[in-house]
Amino acid sequence: MLCCMTDSMGRFQETSLGSVVLERQHDGGRNFNLWSTCRRKIIDTMRCGGGGYRYCHTVHSPVPVIPSCRSDVSKLNNNNNNKGNNNKRSEKLSELLRMSEMMEEEEELVKKKVEALEELKRVVKWLQFGGNDDVLAGAKAVRRLAKDDAGARMTLALLGAIPPLIAMLDSGDLESKIAGLYAVLNIGIGNNTNKAAVVKAGAVHKMLDLIKSPNEGSANPDLCSAIVANFLGLTALDSNKPIIGSSGAVSFLVKMLMSSAKGGVDSQVVQDSLRALYNLSLLPLNVSPMIEIDGFVPFLVATLGDMEVSDRILSILSNVVTTTEGRKAVSSVRGSFQILVDVLSWTDSPTCQEKATYILMVMAHKSYRDRQVMIESGVTSTLLELTLLGSTLAQKRASRILEILRIDKGKQVSETFVGSSGANVSAPQCGYVDSGLVGSTDPSKDLEDDTMMSDESKAVKHLVQQSLHSNMRRMAKRANLPQDFVPSEHFRSLTSMSTSKSLPF
Q: Which residues contact 145 (CB under 8 A, 6 or more apart)?
């Protein structure tokens, strides 16, 4: 047990009961040595027990703790805490750095936008209040700034750049006129509001006046090229089509296009003229001014052999034949159907085939006379080949034309039969099949039937057999049969007995 006692100085000391008994039993120097030993033990016990004064009424030996271990544990805890604090501090620091960089980028972006706006204001100020040199420099700057920047186009229009640019077309300087035209062209790219504003400012009539001017006219290719490019951009907007179509621009575009046959016209001008005429032909009201120009429709049909422009010419003709006057103009051109039928065989140009079949389909549907001309031009075999080998759209249109021609031919047979017999009996108008297309059920009569067939029917029969053989080869390939697989005689007899029921009518 522990007990409390005082030393000679009156201070409290903590010692065990046994030490006190020993101290009382001895005296003199021996008592002093014993007291010193007990004192050291008491001090060591207090140091190992964690310091401080203890008052314990139970007999327990103090648990010794190594001071070095305690210090190591403390240091480890401190190191862990320091590492956690350091990680938090580094995260906060990196976040602050990122925020600082973002703020710098935003400031730089705002600075660039402010500088760009100031430049646009300065350019518009040159156009509105500057002299001739400043106006020319402003037009060139507008062309450069609006070429690839949609925001700049909108801002320039809002700042009022369009009216002074249109006013430059009245200038006596040719360079200023061309610069103004190209600036107007770029400011309207992809912006319908600006295109409408350009037309509203009177650009169409001013451009036509430049063409009619004896000093400029169509003699300057650069000026004409800029005007054609502007008409192309302005006709892309539907609300501008009737205004430009009724202004006389059609005759100018047709003149530029037909001048290409004589040479001396840039190919880009030809393409721009065709595209502008196509935009205008989308509105049926603009078709009449086109076909009224002498030689325009014949020129389009005759130029179909040129692969560089055939696609766009067929696009224009597709819009032209939607009107009655347009169909009459196309059908009145000598050899027009034969040329269109030749286009159907352009296997390397599926888009041209599709557009040619559309033109023939519309004309066959609307006019009995045109159907007769098509049949005489040998369109049936070409259409049948297209239904087998053409694109999906071309196949559908070719099948539709064949159906129209078949029904019309059935009506002819019906009328002939009624006229010869005098009986009121009508032939089936949808179930009619040409006798030349129906094979005999008796193979022994094939040779006799072949001699009675027309050349066209023979060609059709040959195409059908070729298609069936091709399908059989594909089926054999899918079934992993040998490549030298030869159809049996039974299959050949089936192909020889095929009828028009297998055709996509």
A: 119, 120, 123, 152, 156
Say if 156 falls within a structural domain.
no
Tokens of 375: 């049949």
Q: Same domain, yes or no, for 428 and 441?
A: no
Mean pLDDT in consecutive groups of 10 residues from the start of the chain, 505 residues: 48 46 46 59 58 43 48 56 68 79 83 90 92 92 93 94 94 91 95 96 93 65 93 95 94 90 79 95 94 93 90 96 94 92 91 95 91 88 90 93 79 46 38 37 43 56 61 58 49 43 34
Calpha distance 181→140 (Å, rounded): 10
425 & 442 share domain: no
Contacts of 362 (CB under 8 A, 6+ apart): 318, 321, 322, 327
Residue 6's H or E segment, with its range, is: strand 2-6
Shared domain for 423 and 388, answered yes or no, is: yes
Question: What is the reported pTM?
Answer: 0.65
What residues form DSSP beta bridges with 29? none
Q: Is residue 263 part of a domain?
A: no
Q: For residue 179, which of 217, 231, 127 has the smallest C-alpha distance?
A: 127
Owning domain of residue 470: 436-502
Q: How far apart are CA 466 and CA 448, in angstroms?
A: 21
Least Cα distance to 119 among 144, 82, 85 occurs for 144
Which amino acid is present at 251? S
Domain count, the chain: 3
